[in-house]
Design a protein that fits this description.
The protein is mainly alpha-helical. The protein contains seven helices and two strands, in the order H-H-H-H-H-E-E-H-H. The chain has a single domain, classed as Four Helix Bundle (Hemerythrin (Met), subunit A) (Up-down Bundle), CATH 1.20.120. A two-stranded antiparallel ribbon has the order 1-2.
C-alpha cells in the first residue's frame, strides 16, 4: 500500500495540533495553580535567544495550515499573530484545525512534485511538494510543538511523553 501525500500530512499535523492543545491546557492549569498570569507564561522562553511560548504555537499552526494549502496549490489563509491569552491560542489552533479539515485528499494527493516557494528571512526557498512536506513542514511542526512542550515542562508543568504523543 502506498502512503499518499494527504495521509502523510493532514492526519499528522492535525494530531500534532490536537496534542499541542492538550499540553497547553495542562500548562495553563499549572500556571494558574501557581498564580502565574497568561502574559508571563506565554512570554516564557527556554533561553533568551529563542522565541517565547506564544510564538511557538503561532508558528506550529502557521506551518501546519500553510503546508496543507500550499500542497493543495492554494494561497494559505493568513492569521494575525495577536494572541495574548491561552483562550486566544486555543481559538487559533481550532481555527487552523477547522481550516485544514476543509481540504480533501483529491486536493493534496499528487502534489509530490508541485512547486512550493516560501519566503524566509534568508530569502525564497523553493521545494517540490514531497521535499517540502518531509524535510521542512513536518520537522518544523514537531520542533515548535516540542519547544512549546519543553517551555511548559521547564516551567514546572507535569507533562510526560504520552502528553506529547497523545493517544496512538
Amino acid at each position: 500500500m502506498t502512503l499518499s501525500m494527504y495521509q502523510a500530512c493532514v492526519p499528522v499535523v492535525l494530531r500534532a495540533l490536537t496534542n499541542l492543545t492538550h499540553v497547553l491546557k495542562k500548562g495553563e492549569a499549572h500556571a494558574k495553580s501557581k498564580g502565574v498570569t497568561d502574559e508571563v507564561i506565554l512570554q516564557t522562553r527556554l533561553i533568551p535567544d529563542m522565541l517565547p511560548l506564544v510564538r511557538q504555537v503561532q508558528i506550529a499552526t502557521d506551518t501546519s495550515k500553510n503546508a496543507v494549502a500550499r500542497l493543495a496549490g492554494v494561497d494559505p489563509l493568513v492569521f494575525e499573530d495577536t494572541e495574548t491569552t491561552f483562550e486566544q491560542l486555543y481559538a487559533r489552533i481550532e481555527r487552523a484545525v477547522e481550516y485544514i479539515k476543509t481540504f480533501t485528499p483529491e486536493q493534496i494527493d499528487g502534489s509530490e512534485t508541485r512547486p512550493v516557494t516560501i519566503k524566509t528571512r534568508k530569502g525564497d526557498q523553493k521545494f517540490e511538494g514531497e521535499a517540502y512536506l518531509l524535510h521542512f513542514v513536518l520537522p518544523n511542526v514537531f520542533f515548535h510543538c516540542t519547544t512549546a512542550y519543553a517551555i511548559l515542562r521547564t516551567s514546572g508543568t507535569e507533562l510526560g511523553k504520552s502528553d506529547y504523543l497523545g493517544n496512538a
